[in-house]
Here is the input.
Amino acid sequence: MKKFAHFNITTLDEAVTLLRRYRGRAAIIAGGTDLLGKMKDRILPSYPEALINVKTIPGLDFIKEENGRLKIGALTRLEDIAHNRVVKEGYAVLSEAAHRTASPHLREMGTIGGNLCQDIRCWYYRNADNRFPCLRKGGGRCYAQAGDTRYHSIFGGSVEEGCIAVHPSDTAPALLALKADIKTTKRTIGIEDFFQVKVTKTTVLDEDEIVTEIHIPKPANGTKSTFLKFALRKSIDFPIVNCAVTITSSKGKVEAARICLNAVYVIPYRAVEAEKIILGQKITEVNAAASGEAAVEGATPLKDNQYMVQVAKTLVKRAILASQ
Ligand SMILES: Cc1cc2nc3c(=O)[nH]c(=O)nc-3n(C[C@H](O)[C@H](O)[C@H](O)COP(=O)(O)OP(=O)(O)OC[C@H]3O[C@@H](n4cnc5c(N)ncnc54)[C@H](O)[C@@H]3O)c2cc1C
Ligand code: SF4
Here is the structure.
């Protein structure tokens, strides 16, 4: 690993000042479970000259309900979210998503802010020593397009440059299903606008912007939610596909539904057509399956990942049936 400066700062202002001073050559480090792996493997052509450790800022790890919203500090560890009673009881989809992320060790280190801001997991991109200087690193080609696409997008690539890597976060679809807002040092961003499909970045955050809190409106009475994940291993494995569903029912019929998938596209994917199938209906095996079909309408799987379409359909169906 190359040398870099390391700052243990105690305020967000200090962090922002340092980010501005280094102008894109510094990185925020929270749990470090994503960032340090990238640095150790030297996957990128250039490295941060400085790491700004935000874990030394007091008061950014909390979970509380306030004014009808659940508020979670960006530095809250995934393990704490998975086991928190309020989250389990009122926001089950998030508790389950946090619980299914990575392994117990990684959940003890990894934060919710880092989980949302983590980089993509394409195996060409992540190959050690920058062996594949692809589009996302400023290179001239996508190695996956002509290579092994087992774990790539089934809904097309990044708008600008054709990168077909998927977004790997487990908590992101849960937060999308829960209509979360992301608070930063500059603004509040609705989760639907937080991720982006530009090649070099996964979020809309500016160079000098830090996620500080996540706010989630309390789900309406009669809401049930479920997170399901298909991965090759039970632990320490990224999703092949994951699915987060929230359904609000009244008198046995669906009043509102949000169905979200991840690891299927460059950003977390909300399956709006799938939601329409069950709106106003009593949930049955038949319409849950139809909703699964609608969720993958328009999918354009690649030569190696057609199986992901079936996985996505099945997860949607099962998550709906589990949320009634
Ligand atoms: C073996 C392994 C398995 C894994 N499995 C999974 C999995 O199943 N599901 C999954 O979702 N993830 C998985 N991960 C990825 C990762 O561990 C988690 O996403 C974790 O939550 C990242 O959080 P962190 O605090 O460690 O992030 P860091 O590594 O500290 O940061 C990640 C990125 O986010 C930025 N960042 C961090 N905090 C902030 C902030 N507050 N504001 C702005 N930018 C910020 C950093 O600059 C960095 O670019 C896995 C990782 C490994 C190594
Ligand atoms: S899919 Fe994206 S990250 Fe992977 S090789 Fe292609 S451009 Fe690079």
Summary: The pocket of flavin-adenine dinucleotide (ligand 1) is lined by residues 27-35, 37, 54, 74, 78, 101-102, 106, 109-111, 113-115, 117-118, 168-170, 205, 210-211, 236-238 (CB under 6 Å). The chain has a mean pLDDT of 96. The chain is about 30% helix and 20% strand.
